[in-house]
Write a structure and sequence with these properties.
8% helix
Length: 210
Amino acid sequence: MRSRSKLLPVALLGLLSGCVGSDKPLSDPAPSDADKPLYGRWQAGRGDDHELVEFAPPTDATPKTALPDQRLMVMSRYKRTKDGRTYARTDRRAFVTTAGGKSFLNAYTEKSKGAMPCPAREFDIPAWFEFNSYKLDGDTLDLWTMDGDATLRAARGGLLCVEGWPKDDPNPLGVWVEGGRPLLDFLTGKDGGTVFPDSAKVRFTRVKDR
């Protein structure tokens, strides 16, 4: 694979972690049995507030998307203060890709829904897929976000094709990576774990109904 790292602006070299996305998922969108163990609410204590993530099957009231399968999970991620105030909420469609003994989440956001995962601005992007690696062990869910700096290092090594996001912006906010099969092959290969460092991991525990 030809690396595009030489085309990256200098500003990308100091990019903060996070904000890695693509307009292509790792596989065709489809619900599967791998989704169902994720259903429910998960919580992580981070500082004074809690971070939560919820997975649920869609209902008749769930907004439609441009994805070919409307049965995909609804993935909601938000933060909650000690007094119960919810903020920084994002609602997306998500589905699991399992390959090479690893499991990944494809979390989908449509441009028409408003704020993208990076700071809210208007961009000429029809859709955004963000990728997570995860490990589920009983009532513990470890969720890794694809790390921007690590993704750039992989690109400079010729392992991935990336561009600054937004494209042609002298001060890009994130990394736009070639998705689909090329990315899946990389993530399931010997170097795939490098873009999911432990610094990008959050450990959640299942919130059980009383």
